[in-house]
């Protein structure tokens, strides 16, 4: 997993509440058996005027000029500014995969759906919760100023605006540690293999019906 | 000290270790796998040269991509090449690692959330996970059950554990009794209408009260299925006699002495009388009417005798814009009666409402009636091969076919339209599924979430009607 320490980048504003995972990456793209290739279909139904198909060459498709990510001023954006309940809907990890592959490193919103929030960390994408009033301020600033950039400093747990305002955010220490070091969860958990095995053995004794052979 | 909630107990029972940073390792009893969210997890195992921790904890099936017609052709009958690869990939992964899979032509195949309980692969008190957000369904059996992402699927395969943080406790209590023609689906839509799609974020919701006690297991599964639509990863219902009765004689249920021991332990799976919840929401069963969603989020829902809302009356700007956008997408007029919404297609199925009781409720309405001429297609997709068999034994298939419904083979089907069953742009669909997001049932499609009885009623009338008037 790619490490996340400090990142500065252009901000793209997506001013809608309840952006769901079907909007982030429509289901026809879930048919892939790979982890990559989703970036070009991020927000597919909003980004293009036709219906996208997996494996298609997107450079030939008609683009929806009215969709914010297609505005020339947000080209190369790497920080996504969003509204309440971002990422609601399904558990598909394709959503953070698509967002990351498009080039975003962080998503800032007043709130996120739980599963999406969780999935993001596992993919080096940092979801940041800031208060609604702060998010509103950021939206106003991005829209007012072309080339607007934010800095996300994970170590200091701050989002820093061009005028030097710093907004603190919370992050669970374990997730922070993993992101800062680009650590793989499974390896960490397997360090506790003995504890897991002990637990399992006890359980097998007290609740044998949980260990029925399937066939 | 205050007592424990059901969720507290389930958490405690599965807590392997609390780590220094406060996160916990939680042991997973059952993982269900399907073709969409597992390939990258198996690939990850292979790349890291890891083996599944406990093969027997996993059960797989294909459901999202499978066609609902011409099943005798098997995998070869899947026309979409990309779908076919996904299905074959799961078959190959399960064969390679030695995981039990109900393949396409197995009569036990079906939607993951239908087959788990049906086989007794889901049992009370388990932790159940699946790379699918509607895993909350299994909470109906007092399980701690929730959806996970693909990285977590891999994590569970490799370690039999998940890294978790404890959620808060919410009780949604539905007092009193439901009226005739009102079912679990209406209850859960009414709850979401009340607390919103983010109302349960960060919580494990326990559904309780007399209405839940009186409800069948099928109804409870419908309610828990949509907990995620209220923002809660997990929904659950305490164990009672109905729960225990459900597991008698299921293929993977314990038997003999083990059964007695299991039952004894299952009976503990309720919240203590003095348990404290962080939030309590109360509804009255008598107040719940048949529900119809009018917008593009499950919280955009109204009772059948109400009107589509008027966005201009909303004081909250974000909400107002959301309403306006939804009405535009759905092509509905502000203030129009819900009963004036016409339907082009009807879909009865999905992990929300494709069990035998759901089909019985729909058949009761369809019996002796005909699908309206204005309805282009009405289909019934049973949740599993065994549900299909049972329905056919009861003659429900004949009732549907005579009324003009198509009787299909089991799978997710038009719930998310990954297989050929789709809406065309602009079509309105009365659907018993759980998501009315833009494009969910096909690009440009317009979904209205309803109960099976309401879907059947819309099919015969061509527009939404109060099923209580025609029963
Ligand atoms: S029926 Fe629909 S919601 Fe349920 S598992 Fe299948 S796609 Fe998901």
What is this entry, summarized?
The complex is a heterodimer of chains A (215) and B (471). Chain A is α/β, with parallel strands linked by helices and 215 residues long. Chain A is 31% helix and 14% strand.
Beta strands of chain B, count: 19
N-to-C span of chain B: 50 Å
How is the biggest beta sheet of chain A arranged? 7 strands, mixed
Order of strands across the widest beta sheet of chain B? 5-4-3-6-7
Strand content of chain A: 5-15%
Secondary-structure element order of chain A, N to C: EHHEHEHEHEEEHHH
Overall shape of chain A: globular
Poorly predicted regions of chain A are none
Helix-and-strand structural type of chain A: alpha/beta
Largest interface, C-beta within 8 A: A-B, 61 and 82 residues
Give me the Rg of chain B, rounded: 21 Å
Side-by-side strand order of the widest sheet of chain A: 4-3-2-1-5-6-7
The chain-level mean pLDDT of chain A equals 94
- Count, helices of chain A: 8
Architecture overview:
By secondary structure, chain A is of the alpha/beta class. Chain A has eight helices and seven strands. Chain A has helices spanning 21-24, 44-47, 94-102, 114-121, 132-144, 173-181, 185-190, 193-206, and strands spanning 6-13, 79-81, 106-109, 126-129, 149-153, 158-160, 166-168. Chain A has a seven-stranded mixed β-sheet with strand order 4-3-2-1-5-6-7. The model of chain B has no long low-confidence stretch (mean pLDDT 96). By secondary structure, chain B is an alpha/beta fold. Chain B has helices spanning 6-14, 39-47, 81-97, 112-119, 150-159, 184-195, 210-214, 217-225, 241-247, 256-266, 317-330, 356-366, 385-393, 396-403, 452-461, 467-470, and strands at 15-18, 24-27, 30-33, 58-61, 100-102, 127-130, 144-147, 161-164, 168-175, 203-208, 234-236, 279-284, 291-293, 301-303, 345-348, 377-380, 406-407, 428-431, 446-449. Helix content of chain B is 32%, strand content 17%. In chain B, a hairpin with a 5-residue loop joins strand 1 and strand 2. The chains are: A alpha/beta (215), B alpha/beta (471). Chains A and B meet through helix 4, helix 6, helix 7 and helix 8 of A and helix 2, helix 3, helix 5, helix 10 and helix 11 of B. The complex binds iron/sulfur cluster (SF4). Residues 63-64, 111, 113, 132, 134, 350-351, 412, 415-416, 433-434 of chain B line the site of iron/sulfur cluster (SF4).
């Amino acid at each position: 997993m790619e490490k996340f320490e400090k990142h500065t980048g252009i901000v793209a504003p997506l001013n809608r509440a309840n952006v769901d995972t079907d909007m982030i990456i429509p289901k026809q793209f879930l048919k892939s058996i790979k982890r990559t290739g989703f970036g070009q279909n991020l927000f597919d139904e909003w980004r293009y005027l036709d219906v996208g198909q997996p494996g298609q060459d997107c450079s030939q498709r008609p683009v929806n000029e009215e969709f914010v990510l297609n505005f020339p001023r947000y080209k190369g954006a790497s920080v996504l500014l969003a509204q309440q309940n971002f990422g609601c809907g399904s558990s598909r990890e394709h959503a953070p995969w698509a967002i990351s592959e498009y080039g975003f490193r962080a998503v800032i919103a007043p709130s996120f759906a739980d599963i999406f929030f969780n999935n993001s960390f596992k993919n080096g994408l940092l979801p940041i919760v800031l208060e609604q009033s702060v998010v509103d301020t950021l939206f106003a600033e991005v829209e007012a100023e072309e080339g607007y950039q934010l800095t996300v400093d994970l170590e200091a747990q701050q989002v820093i605006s061009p005028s030097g305002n710093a907004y603190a955010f919370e992050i669970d220490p374990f997730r922070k540690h993993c992101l800062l070091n680009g650590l793989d969860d499974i390896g960490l958990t397997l360090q506790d293999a003995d504890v897991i095995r002990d637990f399992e053995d006890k359980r097998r004794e007290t609740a044998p019906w949980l260990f029925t052979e399937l066939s | 000290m205050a007592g424990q909630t059901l969720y507290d107990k389930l958490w405690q029972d599965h807590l392997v270790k609390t780590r220094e940073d406060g996160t916990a390792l939680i042991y997973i009893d059952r993982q269900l796998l399907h073709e969409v969210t597992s390939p990258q997890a198996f690939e990850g195992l292979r790349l890291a040269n890891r083996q599944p921790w406990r093969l027997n904890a996993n059960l797989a099936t294909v459901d999202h991509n499978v066609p609902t017609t011409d099943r005798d052709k098997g995998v070869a009958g899947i026309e979409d090449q990309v779908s076919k690869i996904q299905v074959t990939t799961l078959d190959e992964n399960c064969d390679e690692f030695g995981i039990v899979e109900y393949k396409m032509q197995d009569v036990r195949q079906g939607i993951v959330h239908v087959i788990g309980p049906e086989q007794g692969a889901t049992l009370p008190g388990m932790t159940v996970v699946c790379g699918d957000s509607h895993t909350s369904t299994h909470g109906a059996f007092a399980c701690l059950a929730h959806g996970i992402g693909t990285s977590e699927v891999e994590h569970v395969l490799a370690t039999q554990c998940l890294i978790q943080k404890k959620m808060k406790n919410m009780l949604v209590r539905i007092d009193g009794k439901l009226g005739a023609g009102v079912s679990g689906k209406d209850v859960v839509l009414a709850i979401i209408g009340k607390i919103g799609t983010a109302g349960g974020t960060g919580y494990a919701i326990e559904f309780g009260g007399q209405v839940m006690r009186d409800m069948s297991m099928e109804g409870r599964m419908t309610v828990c299925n949509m907990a995620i639509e209220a923002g809660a990863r997990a929904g659950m219902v305490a164990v009672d006699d109905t729960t225990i009765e459900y597991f008698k004689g299921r293929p993977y249920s314990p038997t003999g002495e083990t059964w007695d021991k299991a039952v004894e332990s299952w009976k503990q799976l309720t919240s203590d009388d003095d348990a404290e919840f962080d939030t309590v929401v109360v509804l009255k069963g008598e107040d719940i009417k048949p529900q119809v969603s009018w917008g593009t989020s499950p919280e955009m829902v109204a009772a059948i005798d109400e009107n589509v809302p008027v966005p201009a009356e909303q004081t909250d700007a974000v909400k107002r814009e959301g309403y306006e956008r939804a009405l535009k997408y759905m092509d509905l007029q502000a203030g129009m009666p819900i009963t004036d919404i016409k339907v082009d297609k009807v879909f009865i199925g999905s992990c929300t409402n494709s069990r035998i009781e759901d089909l019985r409720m729909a058949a009761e309405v369809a019996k002796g009636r005909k699908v309206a001429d204005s309805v282009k297609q009405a289909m019934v997709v049973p949740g599993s091969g065994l549900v299909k068999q049972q329905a056919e034994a009861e003659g429900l298939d004949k009732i549907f076919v005579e009324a003009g419904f198509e009787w299909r083979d089991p799978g997710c089907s038009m719930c998310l339209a990954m297989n050929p069953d789709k809406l065309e742009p602009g079509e309105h669909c009365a659907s018993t599924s759980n998501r009315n997001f833009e494009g969910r049932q096909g690009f440009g499609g317009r979904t209205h979430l309803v109960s099976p009885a309401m879907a059947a009623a819309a099919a015969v009338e061509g527009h939404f009607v109060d099923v209580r008037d025609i029963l």
